[in-house]
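Key idea: predict the complex, not the pieces.
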Amino acid sequence: MTATTIPERKQPTAFQRFFRARGREDSPFGRLLIHIALILACVLSVYPVLRVITISIRPGDRLLSTSLAIIPDDASLEAYRTVLVEKEFLVWLWNSIAITAATAVVGVILSATSAYAFSRWQFPGRIPGLIFLLSTQMIPAPMLMVPIYILATKLGLTQSYRGLVLAYSVTSVPFSIWTLRGYYDTIPHDLEEAAFIDGASSLSAFWLIILPLSAPALVIVFLFNFMAAWSDYLLARVMIASERSLWTWVLGVRDFQSQFQTQWGLFAAASIMVMIPVVALFLYSSKWLISGLTLGSVKG
Amino acid sequence: MEFLTWEVVLNALGEVGSTVLYIFAGTVLLELFVYFLWTPLRALSRRVDGWLDPLGDRLRHLVATVLMAVVVVFAVRAIAVGQTPSPWAPYWPLTVVVFGLGLFISPNALNIFQSELRLAYMLLAPAVVGLLLLVVFPLLWELNVSLTNLNPRHFQSPDYIGLTNYLEVFTKPVLKQVTFFPVLLRTILWTAVNLLFHVTGGMILALLLNRKMRFKGLYRALLVFPWAIPQPIAVLAWRGEFHFEYGFVNIMLQRLGLPAIQWMTDPTWNFIAMSITNIWLGIPFMMVILLGGLQSIAGDYYEAAELDGASAWQQFWGVTVPLLRPVLTPAVILGTVWTFTNFNVPFFINQNELETSDTLVTALFRSAFQYFNLGDAAAFAFVIFGLLLVFSVLYIRVTGGLKGAYE
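Result:
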C-alpha cells in the first residue's frame, strides 16, 4: 500500500487575491492597491462631470479659460439665472417631463402584459415573435425616422406631442419584453398554480403574484424607457424641431451648445439641472439595477 | 420667447394626457374586439378545418403560404412612395380578406384559436398593434422605397428601379466622397475597439468591486455616473472638452509638455476622440452586468479550483469566465449592436462633419436627412440591418448563448 500525499494547501499570493471571490480577506497592501485603483477610476468617471459644473459657475466674462481649477475665481450662478429666467429652459424641461413620464408608464404597461403572454403561453408564433423582437434591436435608428415622420405627417401628428408619445412608448417595447420575459421565466409556475387552486384567474395571478415579484425588472424597464425618451435627440428633432416652444430640453441644450463662444455656460448650467434628477433616480434604483439586469439572463 | 406659464403647463399636459387617454381607449376597444370575436373565430376555424380536412396538411400549408406571400407583396406595393398614391392602394381591403383566407386554410388555424389562448392574445394585442404601426409598417415602407429612385430629383413620382439601389450601395459613394467599404471597416474598427475596452474595463472594475470592502457603495455610485448622465449631455460636454484651446484634454496635454491635438479637424484624432467618449460612456453598463454575474458565482468553485492547485489566472479563465457566459453573451451582443448603431457619439463629436469620421449609421442619417437620397438610404439601411442580423445569428450560434430563450 502506498501512502497518498495530500497536497498541501498553498497560501494564495497577492496576485491571486486580486481575482478572488468575495468574502475572503485580502492583505492590507492589496487592499490599498485596490482602493487606489478604484479612486483613480472614479476620478476618470467623474472628472468630465465636474468640469461641466465648473463651467456652469464661471462668471460670464471668463467662460473661455485655460484654468483647470474645479471652483473658479469669482464663482457665480449667473448662468443658472440666465437659463431659468431669460431662456425657455423651464418650458422645455416641463415638456420633457410630461412626455417622458407618460411614455415610460405606457411603455411599461404594454411590455409587462405582453411579456407575461410570452412567458406563460405556448401560442403559435411565439418563437418567431421573440426572434422578431430581438431583430428589431438591429434596426439602425435613422432607418425608421423617415417612414415614421411621413406616417405622422399623414395622420397630423407632427409639431405636437402625440406622435412623440406614441413613438417613444412603442419603440422601447421589444427590449422591455425581452428583459421582462427573462425575469418572469425565473418565477416558478408553482406559485401561480397554487393560486389557481385557490380559485384565482390567470389575470389575478399575474396582478397579485407575478407583478410584485418582478419589481426589480419592472424598475429596470421603467428606467430604460425613461432614459430612452428623456435623452432622445433624433426623433424629437424630426417631429417637433420647427417650433421652439414645443422643444424638449435636448433640443434646447443642443441649441445652446451649437455656438461654443457665447452659450457654453448656459449649456453647462442647463445640463446640470437636467442631470440632477436623472442621476438621483438612477443611483436610487441602482440596487435593483444589478438583480434586474442579470437574473433574467443567468438562467440559460 | 415663451415662459413657463400656467397656460404652457396645461397645454403640454393636455396634449400628452389626451394622447395617453386615446391610447387607453384604443386598447379597451382592441381588447373588447379580441374578446368577443374569439368564440366565433374559433368556431369558424373548426368548421373550416372540417371542410378542408380531406385536402391534407401539405396542400393546405402550401396554399396558405402562397396567400400570405401575396398579402406581403400587396401590402408593400400599396404603400405610397412620394406624393402620388399607389395604384394598388384602393384594393387594400382585399388583403384583409386574403389574409383571413390564408389564416383559416392553414392547418395551424386550430392551434392558433385554442380556447386557452384568448387571454394570451388579449395581453399581446396592444403591443402587437403598436409594433405593426410603428415598426412593421415603417419597415415595409422602407423596403418599398429601397426599390425606387426616390430622391430630390424624383420627389413627386419616383419610379421602381429594382435592385439598383442595393448595387449602388457597394459601387457608388454613399455620401459625397466616401464609399461603403471604408465606412464599414471604420464602423467595425469602432465597434471592436469600443467593445474591447468596455468588456476589459468593466471586467477589471467588477473584479475590484466584487469583495467586502469599505466605500463599496460609494465607488459603485461614482463609477455608474457616466451611464446615469443623459447621453446627449455627456457627448456634448465631451465635444466641448475636445476644443483645441479651451478643452481640458488639450490643456492637460500642454501642461504635461505635450503638443495640443486637433481633435476636431484631424480625421484620426477625431476618431480617437469619438472612441474615448464612447468608452467612457459604455464601461459602467458592462461593469454593472458583470458585477451582477460575479455575485451569483458561489465561492465554492474557487475553493475547489484552489484545492486542485489552479493559479489565479487559471481560476479566472477556468471558473469565472465560463460561469459568466450566460451574462456575458447577451451583454456582448447588446453592446456590439448598441455601439455599432450608436448615433449620438459619432454624430456630435464629429462637429465639422468630416466624412472620414462617419460610421454607417451617421452616414445613413446624412444620406437620408441632409441629401434626401431616400431610395439609396433605404437600401443602405437594409444592408446595415442585414449585417447586424448576420453577426448576431453567428455570435449566438458560436457561443451557444440565449439557449434559455427557446425553452
